[in-house]
Design goal:
It is a single chain. By secondary structure, the chain is of the alpha/beta class. It folds into three domains: about 140 residues, Rossmann fold, CATH 3.40.50; about 70 residues, Helicase, Ruva Protein, domain 3, CATH 1.10.8; about 130 residues, Up-down Bundle (Zinc Finger, Delta Prime, domain 3), CATH 1.20.272.10. The protein is about 55% helix and about 10% strand. It has 17 helices and eight strands. Helix 3 links the parallel strand 3 and strand 4. Helix 11 runs antiparallel to helix 12. The relative contact order is 0.08. The mean pLDDT is about 90.
Length: about 375
């Protein structure tokens, strides 16, 4: 049984299942979901808890298999947690997990909780994961995307009795907060809790948030790609500065930018050859968020613009490897900034033209 993370609280109020599987790469949200399951279990008499971490291909699963039947004299119900940080249990683990899933059916003395990283489609269709899904509840813990982050912050503030100022100032406050904590949800949670310690319940103005919230944002090159394709120049600037400060390799940043440009060019060439856009995207293995971004920008990009970007990417490739290029900065990060801004400008969707106001003709008496 698959369950959305937002449905977990309502599900736990109706009763517990004997088997739960959490999978996702956001530590805060995975931890909170696990805490909710543990709290519900404790309320129903699951007083013992054992934890097992699967490390390496030679992990001994016999201890885990025996855990369900090893209740102490002081408890009649227990929680058995199994963490698989790699998401790869191996051949022996696959067999053991299927046995655990089968033994969980109808069990009222042991609650088994699996905790896994984000899993790809092939893993989710494997025999061991399907066994977990059929015998219990599986919950995918998705990350909070940048566009949803201000609302997530507002909801967390509301839970602790605080809120931002209404209207435009409040939206500016939430955007500022999101810029400071992007890519670091655990630190965002801590910054929100800090506001509860510093200020009473009620309204938070921009000045209070600006003075209290630290810049704890963390960036990765994959999110940089989405920001560039989205034409978000201010965000791209922050991300490049953050990646540089974190010591990210210039070559990796360049590869990310250049690969997007090459992919745009390949899809555009396929469209020019008569391929429908959806088919061209599938052939180039463009999926998910990036697929939607490509669909938005490709109709606006012409061959000349893409050729210019491709040539610029080639020049910056030489710069980050120590070569000089005419009319380009010699510093690799400066060159990357220029390439990113060129791509941003090409991908930016212009605002819709405002309609002229209709003035009613004056009546001449």
């Amino acid at each position: 049984m698959q369950l959305a993370a937002a449905q977990l609280a309502g599900h736990l109020q109706k009763g517990l299942r004997a088997l739960y599987t959490l999978h996702g790469d956001e530590p805060l949200l995975v931890q909170e979901a696990g805490d909710a399951i543990r709290a519900a279990a404790r309320a129903q008499g699951y007083t013992e808890r054992t934890s097992h971490t699967v490390a390496g291909a030679h992990f001994d699963w016999s201890e885990v298999l025996a855990a369900g039947g090893s209740l102490s004299l002081f408890a009649d119900r227990q929680i058995v947690e199994i963490r698989i940080p790699s998401g790869k249990p191996g051949k022996d683990g696959s067999v053991a997990i299927q046995q655990l899933a089968e033994s969980a059916r109808g069990s009222d003395s042991t609650l088994t909780l699996f905790m896994l990283p984000r899993l790809d489609k092939a893993t989710r269709t494997g025999a061991w994961f399907m066994a977990l899904e059929n015998a219990g509840v599986t919950i995918a813990i998705d990350p909070v995307e940048r566009a949803a982050l201000p609302q997530w912050i507002a909801q967390r503030l509301q839970h602790q009795g605080q809120r931002v100022t209404a209207g435009e100032e409040g939206q500016r406050t939430l955007q500022f907060f999101a810029d400071r904590v992007e890519g670091n949800l655990l630190a965002a949670h801590q910054e929100i809790q800090k506001l509860a310690l510093l200020f009473p319940e009620g309204e938070l103005g921009f000045d209070r948030v600006e003075g209290a919230v630290l810049n704890v944002a963390r960036y990765d090159v994959f999110k940089l790609s989405e920001a560039v394709l989205g034409g978000q120049s201010a965000r791209v600037q922050r991300m490049l500065d953050g990646l540089r400060a974190e010591g990210e390799a210039e070559v990796l940043v360049h590869y990310t930018l250049a690969e997007d440009i090459r992919a745009l060019k390949r899809v555009k060439d396929a469209m020019n050859a008569g391929r429908p856009l959806p088919m061209a995207l599938r052939e180039q293995r463009i999926w998910g968020v990036k697929e939607r971004l490509f669909e938005r920008v490709l109709p606006r990009l012409n061959d000349s613009t893409l050729s210019t970007l491709l040539q610029a990417a080639h020049q910056v490739d030489g710069i980050v490897k120590g070569l000089k290029q005419p009319d380009w900065p010699t510093n690799g990060w400066q060159a990357l900034h220029r390439l990113a801004m060129m791509s941003c400008q090409a991908c930016r969707v212009p605002p819709a033209p405002s309609r002229p106001a209709v003035v009613a003709p004056s009546r001449v008496s």
